[in-house]
Amino acid sequence: MPRLLDLPRSYNAASHFIDRHSAEGRGDKIAFIDDKGRYSYAELTARVNRAGNLLRSLGVQPEQRVMLALLDGIDFPALFFGAMKIGAVPVPVNTLLTTQDYDFLLRDSRAVALAVSDALLEKFRPIVTDQPYLRQVLISGRVPATITPLEALLQQQSDQLDPAPTTPDDIGFWLYSSGSTGKPKGTMHLHGDLAHTAVLYGEEVLGIREDDVVFSAAKLFFAYGMGNAMTFPLHVGATALLMAERPTPQAVMQRLKDHQPSIFYGVPTLYGAILADNTLGREQGSAKLRHCVSAGEALPEDIGKRWQERFGVTILDGIGSTEMLHIFLSNRPDDVRFGTTGKAVPGYDLRLVDEHGQDVKDGEIGELLVAGYSSATGYWNNRTKSLATFQGIWTRTGDKYIRDADGYYTYAGRSDDMLKVSGIWVSPFEVESALLAHESVLEAAVVAHEDADRLIKPKAYVVTKQGISGDGVLIESLQVFVKERLAPYKYPRWIEFVDELPKTATGKIQRFKLR
Predict the structure, then answer these.
(1) Range of 485's domain?
(2) Whose CA is closest to 325, among 509, 174, 106?
């Protein structure tokens, strides 16, 4: 059975992650460093309390939703935990969406208040006056002269606030799924879920410590980034570095160099881009780096090995989901096997099942099911999809895996991405990993394509490295390269060169768009 933490019945997540630090002697310690300043744990606590008091003064009631469209900075944790502390439900949303997307999210969540960064305000301006539920808009950053900025509103509030009488089983916050295959779904999480991921993965697998400085390229509105740069460091009293801008290789390496973090979290696309960026030379980033983590998509073996050769630090590849809140299957510091996603995080149970729900044997492909107490309770107002995903203690991930005799799991692709070639299942990820090992390839995506006889074969979309042009000679070279590494039927029959691959905001390749 999965592991349940012994949390008290009277429990508010803000008390655990925010309030206790001053009492434990960390008041003067730096909690966050963002683009504008440094904030101690005492200053963070005061800001959270002011944020909660502000929301309450604006009429926000317990269980009502507060949407956060905020770039990474101190206002994100302040409003997130400020809302939770008064029993309201913060709903962080992707900051890369369109006006139409935000209109849907505001209506679907029925948020009564919105906190938005000034850089995103123009996307909301056409829609905020026509919302049936929205009553208040708070702007973080610069505002027109006729509007009071969030900073000034916070300073008008008391820095004292008692937590609402919630339990670990109260709805604490929502996270919307990425919506890569349809409309985003409001994934409802409990107050107790944050502690489960912080203990089971952050503390017991990653080994995060109070003396760590952490930096996550994945943003706070992602489940992955939220644990990386907010709840994990707050759980142990560490320091987190926040960056509002897009995580380009140059921006990331500059932060590593300037702040010397000890833990860095990225995604496979970013690790590959840093290794391929010729403008960085042999820049080594942080000399204090002791752990790197990857999630979002499976990490190709070649990228993991090349990163370790260059930086001397191993990338711990893992998989999590919005539904499970963070990583539940992972390599770990003392047990890394490149090309695999490792083993179950202690406290989570895993199964691999076939299309009939029966467990598959080691060496066979099956859909990954996970059981753990960080699982969401369901999707907001979406009973059909909730029943399809959350089945008893088990959550269906939609990911295909193979488990070997030693208990290591190897990613085989998404359930809807798998190819059946000559009657045999082929993992797009396996073919992509082979292509990525070629010196000319920066990124690759493989999808199903019909030949002249309407039979399914692999087709590859390839982004070449800078200065390399895609032509017939390179196509032939890549096909031979893959044939030498995989079974012959797996090689891509067609290769098309593109400038970029379609991706979600989390960096996951949207193969359905290529199909």
Answers:
(1) 419-514
(2) 174
**How far is Cα 98 from Cα 471, in angstroms, rounded to an integer?**
36
Stretch 287-316: mean pLDDT: 94
Are 270 and 154 found together in one domain? no
pLDDT at 177: 86
Q: Do residue 391 and residue 506 come from a single domain?
A: no
Query: Which of 414, 429, 458 is the C-terminal boundary of a domain?
Result: 414
Instruction: Find the CATH number of the domain harbouring 446.
Output: 3.30.300.30
| Phi-psi map region of 285: left, alpha, beta (phi>0 left; psi -120 to 50 alpha) | left
pLDDT in tens, 327-363: 999 999 999 999 999 999 999 999 999 989 999 999 9
Rounded Cα gap, residues 78 and 50, in angstroms: 8
pLDDT computed for residue 429 by the predictor: 86
Total structural domains within the chain = 3
Backbone angles phi, psi at 479, to 5 degrees: -65, -40
Q: How many Cα atoms occupy the beta-carbon half-sphere of 7 within 13 Å?
A: 24
Alpha-carbon span 152 to 142, nearest angstrom? 11
- Give the distance, in angstroms, between the CA of residue 290 and the centroid of all CA atoms in the same chain: 21
462 pairs with which residues across the strands?
444, 497
Tell whether the torsion through CA atoms of 68, 74, 77 and 81 is positive or negative: negative
Of 27 and 282, the structure prediction assigns the larger pLDDT to: 27
Of 182, 156, 146, 143, nearest to 53 by C-alpha is 156
> How would you class 355 by CB atoms within 10 Å of its CB: exposed for 0-12, middle for 13-18, buried for 19 or more?
exposed
Q: Is 201 a domain residue?
A: no
Q: What is the CATH number of the domain that holds 46?
A: 3.40.50.980
Among 28-42, 198-212, 422-436, which stretch is predicted with the lowest mean pLDDT? 422-436
Asked if residue 203 belongs to a domain, the reply is no
What is the C-alpha separation between 488 and 422, in angstroms, rounded?
A: 11
Residue 393 belongs to a domain with what CATH number?
A: 3.40.50.12780
Q: Tell me: the pLDDT tens digits for 404-413? A: 999 999 998 8
Which percentage of the chain shows pLDDT scores above 90? 82
Which token pair is 36? 């504008």
- Asked if 92 and 76 touch (Cβ cutoff 8 Å), the reply is yes
CA dihedral 412, 500, 325, 79 (to 10 degrees): 180
Mark whether 382 and 435 lie in a shared domain. no
Residue with tokens 């966050």: 32
The reply to whether 30 falls in a domain is no
Residue owning tokens 């074969």: 457
User: Do residues 352 and 294 share a domain?
Assistant: yes
Residues 374, 225 share a domain = yes
State whether 292 and 366 are in the same domain.
yes
- Coil vs helix vs strand at 266: strand
Is 298 a member of any domain? yes
Strand partners, 503: 509
Q: Is the pLDDT at 262 greater than 50, yes or no?
A: yes
Nearest to 101 by CA among 512, 509, 515, 504: 504
> Does 425 lie in the same domain as 410?
no
